[in-house]
Amino acid sequence: FKEKDMHLLSALLIFEGKEGIEMNESRKGMRLEPFTFTIEAGKIREFAQALGDDNPDYETGKRIPPTFATVIEFWGSKRPMEDVLQLNMAKVLHAGQEYEYVGAMAVGDQITCEGEVIDAYTRAGMNFVVVENKYKNQRGELVLISRSTIIERS
Question: Residues near 119 by Cβ (< 8 Å), separated by ≥ 6?
Fold first, then answer.
């Protein structure tokens, strides 16, 4: 992932830290500042084009690419992840991403993302942070759960 892609994983943690701080289990359960994003057909189309996916359903907004949550996080969050987590971006690796769809999202939906740090630890001199985001539509229905694992190398 490029630095811009790391912004896609942005979530606002409510804590103060310093660059190079060791992650520890006390950060588990930290709540992330929620945000809301309205799904637009144009954003679906742009994302599909960026992926090189010419699926006509993405062009019209009839369907949403499976990894579209990255767009929601990038455009909906208020601060870049490196600011929030106090990470040194020159040392950050995106170690994993998973999406668990439990409902459907459509153009016009207002998606609210709420998240938390579900794991944070240091191993072999590297900091690991696992963030889980839950996405609900304007009716309060859970539609997606995403989990990302971020590593800050020493």
Answer: 28, 128, 129, 130
Question: For the segment 78-122, what is each residue's pLDDT rounded down to a tens digit?
Answer: 876 666 666 788 999 999 999 999 999 999 999 999 989 899 899
- For residues 37 and 110, is the Cβ–Cβ distance under 8 A? yes
Backbone angles phi, psi at 9, to 5 degrees: -90, 5
β partners of residue 123: 126
Helix (H, G, I), strand (E, B) or coil at 90: helix
CB neighbour burial string for 115-129, b if at least 16 within 10 angstroms, e if fewer: bbbebbeeeeebbbb
Q: Can you give the three-state secondary structure of 118-143, one letter per residue? A: EEEEEECCEEEEEEEEEEECCCCCEE
Tokens of 94: 């995106």
